[in-house]
Q: What sequence folds into this?
């Protein structure tokens, strides 16, 4: 490694052709108070082994700059106070303790990711100070012109190395499912960018005329916190001389280190698909809570989602069904297709049997909600659930009470007339008017068959296209659905029980 580091500092790849030249540059940079990594950055040393914490002693020696007090591990109080002065260029963002903190907090969550992408959000002052160092370097006779490495890239490299070493994950910029977002904060230098805000524009509009867009934007930038792009743009537009007039070059030291303002560890969602059966009534598909009050005790989402959340150690979950039945309607037959999105899962490397065990546990506990074909699915497979809504047909079985029992001949007549289906005109039902626009929609029943049970009671089997309101078809909804079973039977009809017996959508994928 010794060869590699010397090569990086003053070898063929470097702008410095001898150790003496490199040391002179390092001395000039170190005199600004810059940390070792910032010395390397402004010497144009490409990201690599020289930036590793383990190489620090070797790099210090190669560049002939003294090891700062306190980096040996046995700090006296006095040394610690000296240490309070932090790097004026990176505000100690590149200090190994920050990379360690990110790695520790990542490790504590026990994600089973194999790789990750790191995102970095730097304080604006770091961009100002980067430019101040560049202006300083340009004027220095010892520091050669080179492409300085940015703080963002350097931090990604340092944190990436630490994560690779301590957590065994690979850091690349591919489309990893794991994102580590580090936002840094440094209150002390929060005003560094103020000298570089867009200049106020001359207000030449006549009194009362609306402000121009550009003027309004400039005002916003001045009055409120400007966005980073505005500051970076202003810095780029600034000449070295102009910059020097507004900001000290090299930048002044800061007393305290930048800290991690927020660290977001976000894993792409994991999707589990299957079909659910609801064997009892009074279970809603998702928690039914109005004004903080729970109206239905159980939900399909919680019964299936909670064990999946525990298995994947997710922050949250979300169940999406291919349509939904009312809480008082059972879901029988082969079940209703659904998927559960597990949000920010820690565990995603799951054997098919671990998912099936969730299904088996529901069966063992005789849960009122059961699943079929529970399995991991690809994110793209969820589209079928969302789009399948319009294409699928459903089979229902209803227990119906008729005020006036029908003759056998009349039952046969209705069945014969409806054998090839019925076209309904359904106005938006009264019970959903609060959330759906009042419209009349044509809906097709594909099949209808009435069978007498006894007395006033009938078993009615219906196959309908998606979106037809079955309860309203039975009782007529005060004449808003025509024809209805009530109008066909010529008497009042009441629906006592309703079951969905089949949802014809092929899901999950085989
Ligand atoms: Zn630094």
A:
């Amino acid at each position: 490694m010794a060869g590699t580091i010397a090569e990086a500092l003053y070898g063929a790849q470097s702008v410095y052709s001898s150790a003496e030249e490199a040391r002179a540059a390092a001395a000039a940079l170190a005199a600004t108070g810059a940390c070792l990594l910032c010395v390397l950055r402004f010497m144009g040393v490409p990201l690599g082994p020289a930036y590793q914490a383990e190489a620090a002693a070797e790099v210090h020696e190669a560049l002939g700059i003294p090891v700062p007090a306190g980096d040996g591990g046995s700090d006296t109080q006095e040394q610690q106070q000296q240490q309070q002065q932090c790097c004026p260029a990176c505000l100690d963002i590149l200090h190994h303790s920050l990379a360690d903190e990110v790695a520790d907090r990542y490790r504590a969550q026990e994600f089973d990711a194999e790789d990750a992408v790191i995102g970095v959000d730097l304080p604006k002052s770091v961009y100002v100070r980067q430019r101040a160092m560049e202006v300083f370097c340009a004027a220095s006779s010892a520091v050669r012109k080179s492409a300085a490495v940015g703080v963002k890239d350097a931090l990604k490299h340092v944190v990436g190395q630490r994560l690779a070493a301590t957590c065994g994950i690979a850091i690349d910029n591919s489309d990893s499912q794991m994102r580590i977002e580090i936002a840094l904060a440094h209150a002390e230098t929060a005003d560094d960018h103020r000298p570089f805000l867009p200049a106020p524009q001359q207000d030449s509009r006549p009194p009362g005329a609306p402000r121009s867009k550009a003027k309004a934007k400039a005002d916003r930038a001045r009055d409120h916190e400007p966005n980073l792009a505005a500051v970076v743009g202003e810095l780029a537009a600034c000449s070295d001389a102009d910059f020097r007039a507004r900001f000290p070059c090299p930048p002044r030291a800061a007393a305290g280190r930048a800290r991690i303002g927020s660290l977001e560890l976000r894993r792409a969602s994991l999707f589990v698909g299957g079909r659910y059966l609801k064997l009892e009534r009074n279970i809603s598909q998702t928690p039914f809570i109005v004004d903080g009050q729970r109206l239905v005790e159980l939900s399909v989402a919680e019964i299936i989602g909670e064990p999946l959340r525990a298995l994947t150690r997710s922050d949250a979950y979300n169940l999406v069904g291919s349509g939904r039945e009312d809480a008082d309607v059972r879901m029988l037959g082969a079940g209703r297709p659904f998927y559960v999105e597990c949000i920010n899962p820690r565990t995603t490397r799951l054997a098919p049997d671990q998912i099936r065990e969730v299904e088996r546990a529901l069966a063992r506990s005789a849960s009122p909600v059961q699943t079929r074909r529970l399995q991991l699915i690809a994110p793209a497979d969820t589209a079928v659930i969302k789009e399948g809504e319009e294409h699928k047909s459903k089979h229902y079985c209803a227990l119906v009470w008729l005020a006036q029992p029908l003759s056998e001949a009349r039952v046969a007549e209705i069945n014969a007339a409806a054998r090839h289906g019925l076209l309904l005109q359904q106005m938006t039902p009264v019970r959903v008017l609060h959330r759906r626009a009042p419209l009349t929609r044509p809906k097709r029943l594909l099949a209808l068959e009435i069978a007498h049970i006894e007395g006033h009671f009938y078993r009615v089997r219906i196959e309908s296209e998606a979106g037809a309101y079955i309860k309203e078809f039975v009782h007529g909804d005060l004449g808003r659905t025509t024809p209805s079973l009530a109008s066909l039977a010529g008497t009042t009809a009441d629906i006592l029980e309703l079951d969905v017996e089949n949802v014809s959508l092929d899901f999950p994928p085989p």
Remarks:
- The longest strand covers residues 329-343.
- Residues 2-192+247-265 form one domain.
- The first helix runs from residue 2 to 10.
- The radius of gyration is 35 Å.
